[in-house]
Each structure stands twice: as structure tokens, then as C-alpha cells.
Specification:
Elements (H helix, E strand, L loop, with lengths): L1 H12 L5 H7 L4 H5 L5 H4 L6 H23 L1 H25 L11 H22 L2 H23 L5 H23 L1
Helix pairs in contact: 5-6, 5-7, 6-7, 6-9, 7-8, 7-9
Length: about 180
């Protein structure tokens, strides 16, 4: 819901494809983060470039988020979402600075969504290790197939951030794994 509200703010202020509006509302710009604008690590997760970008992310968030909410609960879902999203933006910033590739402006919820996918992967691995059933194996294979397709598409589309998706997935996997350990006790 917050993604949609923030998108409406973008539209009201002059358009979701207006770089100046996106910049002022908090898109991730690695150099700006290093110079003290760390709030961009949060706000960039809620900005979207155009209706299609918003629509694709909201559809993914609906399906993936519903599953994570059902399996982890709303508070853990939100924890995974925010830690993954902020972590994906921070990881991207670090990577951009280390490779001296800072001519980027990054925005969107997909790093956080990939974090949710990472938490589902952790859940499916846990289920497979416990059950060793064909169903658990098929679920794990399916999620790994989906993640592989996502990463291949990321690498083929230069306007999509492979690294923010990768960092979000890894962070979500670890956060999900930790939550599953504490839930089991």
C-alpha cells in the first residue's frame, strides 16, 4: 500500500518518470548516500519508474508477500521486507562505490521482494531437510528455477539491477533462516 501511495505522490509532484522528482523523493544515488543521505536506502524502495514498473512489482509483492505473510506472519514479513530492501540498497551502494561505477540512480521494491523470495527459499530448504519428500523437493526446485530465471533476465536487461536483486535475495534468505531457527525453538 505504501508503494502505491508513494507512487501517487510521484504523479502529483510531476510524474513517476521525471528524474528530478524521483531524485528529490529519495531515489538511491550511491554518491549521495556516502555524503550523508542514508535515508535514500529506505525511500528508494518505495519509488517506481512508471506504471509498468509499479504494476510488475505490486503483482510480485501480492503473490510472494501473501505467501510469506501466511508462513511467517505479518511482523516477520515486514521485518524481512524492510531489512532486505534496505540491505539491497546498501549492498548496491557498496558495490557501486567499490567498482567505481556510481553513475546510477536506483529505485523500486524488487530488492525487498527478492528478499521475500529468499525467505521462501530458506523455508523450502528447511522443509526439504526435515521431510525429504518429493513435494518438498519439487517446491525447492521450483523456487530455485524461478530465482535462476529472474537472475538471467536481470543480466539481459541493463536497466534492471542484478546486484540489488542478488543482495536482497541473499539478505532475505539469511533473515528468513534466522527467523525459522527462532520460530522452531
Amino acid at each position: 500500500m505504501f508503494n502505491i501511495c508513494y507512487f501517487l505522490v510521484q504523479i502529483i509532484l510531476g510524474g513517476s518518470e521525471n528524474i528530478n522528482i524521483i531524485y528529490h523523493l529519495g531515489a538511491l544515488v550511491p554518491q549521495e548516500v556516502v555524503q550523508g543521505e542514508s535515508w535514500r536506502l529506505i525511500t528508494a524502495n518505495f519509488l517506481h519508474y512508471g506504471w509498468l514498473h509499479l504494476l510488475v512489482n505490486m503483482i510480485a509483492l501480492y503473490f510472494v508477500g501473501s505467501f510469506v505473510d501466511a508462513k511467517f506472519g505479518i511482523y516477520r514479513y515486514l521485518l524481512i521486507y524492510f531489512i532486505s530492501g534496505i540491505g539491497a540498497m546498501a549492498g548496491f551502494t557498496y558495490f557501486a562505490l567499490k567498482t567505481n561505477n556510481t553513475d546510477y540512480i536506483l529505485l523500486g521494491a524488487s530488492g525487498a521482494i527478492m528478499g521475500l523470495v529468499g525467505s521462501i527459499t530458506a523455508l523450502f530448504i528447511q522443509n526439504f531437510c526435515k521431510e525429504k519428500s518429493l513435494i518438498a523437493k519439487n517446491r525447492l526446485q521450483f523456487i530455485l528455477f524461478v530465482v535462476s530465471i529472474q537472475f538471467v533476465c536481470d543480466l539481459l536487461m541493463p536497466e534492471v539491477s542484478f546486484y540489488s536483486h542478488l543482495f536482497g535475495f541473499i539478505i532475505g534468505f539469511f533473515v528468513g533462516s534466522i527467523l525459522l531457527i527462532f520460530t522452531a525453538q
